[in-house]
């Protein structure tokens, strides 16, 4: 019984500290890793509609298809109806057909969010 309680306690501590199977091995390390529960800086700028920051990050080499919280930057731009940013992402190689971890495309996020301007940008880009 004590072993079971200790094992469950250890598991709970690992979960509470955000240890992930995707993180590097902790053997011989004193670093503590945590799981992200908010989007990366690039996607935060997209959500806020901060076009200048998005431009700067792209110029600095930000990957326009890298997922954050299971969604690409285009998914965030579509969901938060950011047509200008969505155009910028598309011009820089954003893949509109890429699916989120939930299986949705940028077009579907725009539809679900009633993001009419973003949906128009996506539909125009897919015609080309």
From TrEMBL:
ANK repeat start-end pairs: 69-101
Protein name: Ankyrin repeat domain-containing protein
Species of provenance: Flagellimonas nanhaiensis
Signal peptide stretch: 1-21
Keyword terms of this UniProt record: ANK repeat, Signal
One Pfam family recorded for the sequence: Ank_2
């Amino acid at each position: 019984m004590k072993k079971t309680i200790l094992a469950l306690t250890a598991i709970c501590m690992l979960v509470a500290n955000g240890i992930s199977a995707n993180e590097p091995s902790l053997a011989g390390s004193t670093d503590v890793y945590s799981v992200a529960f908010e989007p990366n800086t690039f996607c935060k700028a997209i959500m806020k509609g901060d076009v200048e920051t998005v431009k700067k990050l792209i110029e600095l080499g930000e990957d326009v298809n890298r997922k954050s919280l299971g969604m690409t930057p285009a998914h965030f731009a579509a969901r938060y109806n950011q047509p200008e940013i969505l155009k910028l992402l598309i011009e820089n190689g954003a893949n509109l057909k890429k699916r989120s971890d939930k299986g949705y495309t940028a077009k579907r996020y725009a539809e679900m969010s009633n993001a009419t301007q973003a949906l128009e940008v996506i539909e125009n880009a897919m015609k080309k």
